[in-house]
Known about the structure:
- The chain has helices at 3-18, 28-43.
- By secondary structure, the chain is an all-alpha fold.
- The mean pLDDT is 78.
- Keywords: Membrane, Transmembrane, Transmembrane helix.
- The chain crosses the membrane at residues 7-28.
Amino acid sequence: xxxxxxxxxxxxxxxxxxxxxxxxxxxxxxxxxxxxxxxxxxxxx
Length: 45
């Protein structure tokens, strides 16, 4: 994944965490999305 792709992934993860619309109530899904985003960004190095 290019640097642009990593940047877009990070921005999308941040937007999902900050947005009031979630797939599940509470911070659980936010933590899962954050961990998946970090793993995807690291794996693509």
